[in-house]
Amino acid sequence: MLTKEEIQHKIDYEIIVDCYDETEVSMGWYYFFEENLEFPFKATVPLRKKDGSTEIKVVKVVALASDEEGITDNDFELEIENGEYLMDVSYSELTNIKASAQTREAFQIWDFWVK
To answer: Which Pfam families does this UniProt record tie to the protein (predicted)?
Structure first.
């Protein structure tokens, strides 16, 4: 696990360096995730059923959602595979993430940023 100082240094000098507006910050995070998330990995996510109820499912997270503008100040989208279906879900919906150390570190940095 990274220290708060290490995380802040990565944010300031690797992710949002030279960013002057929200669009540039969003793009900085997108490219950081593109370089640091290792796919696929498993996680659980609540999926809504046709009857309106939800069911917690183990899914395979296979990609960062394709739109770099989809990263906001507090969330971003990932593409998941559930059986034969592909869909985008918010990172904030994922729990029990089973991923590489590099991917977990990237999420640690993001979680620090949004708090």
So the answer is: Calci_bind_CcbP (PF11535)
